[in-house]
């Protein structure tokens, strides 16, 4: 069977999905990503890999065809492991190797994987597929489906869905529906029922007055999968939330819109009409990131990014834990992109420990699992909250604790149980498998409503250090090697020292660069005491990268 399938895969690969270029492609920050025209053979092979991985894990594996925030001409694929998390890092190497071998090495490579991983091809295999709205996605999805089918996997294609929905479907199915029902309706109903229950709990305690909170949200969907998904979600909550949607498919994906555009440029998306103080959100192309923003009275753009969401969520959860009198190990995970002011606020004001890891949700997710309650958000708006089994068991026990019904501390105990009920409802609202723009929106709205806060009150928690992000195009971005999560440079030699000298010239200066794992660029981040200084520092750092790492075209300016 092994030889027959491998040879059939190679033959089909040569005729229908041949490798048409010599460019190496790597499983990067979030899967494979490249120009869509270069990906036929990669998707076909990943379909095969998913069928193999499914047998190794004895569970359903997910394959999401998307290039998320990238321009519409790009595409890519993210592989989802059984509990809905990103593909195990060891298998990234296997995937990279399989994606890059020559056409006539395909059968030998497949046989090698089967032998090395001791895969029993007689076992059943099952793969779930989803795709984003790119024109290239149906074709690439078919290629992957063909690969899986050739390896005798049962295949379920969910069509156009958000990336986090596919993660949820995989986790739900593999949990025998304990995590949820693995359908779109199951997903919307789980999240929105929790949202409704939480709100009812708050209203029953406090009454309907919600202070400065207003239920109106202006939503930019980046012309991606978020549009149709949010329209469905909004129907479930039309009595509680009012949405005004923009960029829901009438324009080009991610073009001058979406979470990445808004965060990096620190500006409003195009084609969105807002009034001063409207609470606005932008999703990215596959709806796994969200950022909030508004325009203040002087028409100044104000951003509330992933760092703000992390601090809002961490503060609220800590507050509930305090009410419950429960000592759980809670932590926040960030990356080097986190604004220094957010880290300081979380550590010093909220008194919650903060860990810093390499960019990429997979790194944050793993670190967050070390806490009883791990809150992770990248500054770009990608994140979620993880609750350990221990935390869930303890909170459930408190909710069901009847021992205090007759006690004199009934009121206090009632408060504790209500906080426990809220926490459990909150857990149902979170997509614990990965960052999820829809779930994160519901969480933020829940907390703002519970706190009776406007977006300005939320923003007033701390003041961001001015910052700037730039991109430098170089011949080979991998010339830049970072050696730690803070992105100190190991290579090219001497570059870090040059950076340090420059950074030292700016008050509150901090800056770093790293090769992107999703775009063919080196990313530059700079922070300083004023916006003008942050811009200047970023431009200087970008110039140095351009000089020392083989820049193409002109260095970026701001
Ligand atoms: C992906 C990852 C994120 C990462 C982002 C940018 O997001 O899931 O963790 O922050 O890429 O990565 P890089 O700086 O390496 O290009 P998405 O939304 O594009 O899938």
TrEMBL record:
List of residues binding Mg(2+): 68, 284, 286, 288
Alphabetical list of InterPro entries matching this protein: A-D-PHexomutase_a/b/a-I (IPR005844), A-D-PHexomutase_a/b/a-I/II/III (IPR016055), A-D-PHexomutase_C (IPR005843), A-D-PHexomutase_C_sf (IPR036900), A-D-PHexomutase_CS (IPR016066), AMG1_II (IPR049023), AMG1_III (IPR049022), PAGM (IPR016657)
Transmembrane segments: none
CDD domains noted in UniProt: PGM3
The family this protein is said to belong to: Belongs to the phosphohexose mutase family.
Keywords, ordered alphabetically: Acetylation, Carbohydrate metabolism, Isomerase, Magnesium, Metal-binding, Phosphoprotein, Signal
Gene3D superfamilies, per database record: Alpha-D-Glucose-1,6-Bisphosphate, subunit A, domain 3 (3.40.120.10), Alpha-D-phosphohexomutase, C-terminal domain (3.30.310.50)
Alpha-D-phosphohexomutase C-terminal domain sequence ranges: 505-543
Pfam families: AMG1_II, AMG1_III, PGM_PMM_I, PGM_PMM_IV
Residue stretches making up the Phosphoacetylglucosamine mutase AMG1 domain: 214-291, 305-453
Reported function: Catalyzes the conversion of GlcNAc-6-P into GlcNAc-1-P during the synthesis of uridine diphosphate/UDP-GlcNAc, a sugar nucleotide critical to multiple glycosylation pathways including protein N- and O-glycosylation.
PROSITE patterns xrefs: PGM_PMM
EC number: 5.4.2.3
Reaction equation(s) it catalyzes: N-acetyl-alpha-D-glucosamine 1-phosphate = N-acetyl-D-glucosamine 6-phosphate
GO BP field: carbohydrate metabolic process; UDP-N-acetylglucosamine biosynthetic process
The protein's name in its UniProt record: Phosphoacetylglucosamine mutase
Residues annotated as catalytic: 68
Species this chain originates from: Thrips palmi (Melon thrips)
Span of domain Alpha-D-phosphohexomutase alpha/beta/alpha: 50-87, 109-175
Top-level taxon: Eukaryota
Residues where substrate binds: 378-380, 514-518, 523
Pathways involved: Nucleotide-sugar biosynthesis; UDP-N-acetyl-alpha-D-glucosamine biosynthesis; N-acetyl-alpha-D-glucosamine 1-phosphate from alpha-D-glucosamine 6-phosphate (route I): step 2/2
Cofactor: Mg(2+)
Record text on cofactor binding: Binds 1 Mg(2+) ion per subunit.
GO molecular function per UniProt: magnesium ion binding; phosphoacetylglucosamine mutase activity
Keyword Membrane: no
Enzyme class: isomerase
Biological classification of the source: Eukaryota, Metazoa, Ecdysozoa, Arthropoda, Hexapoda
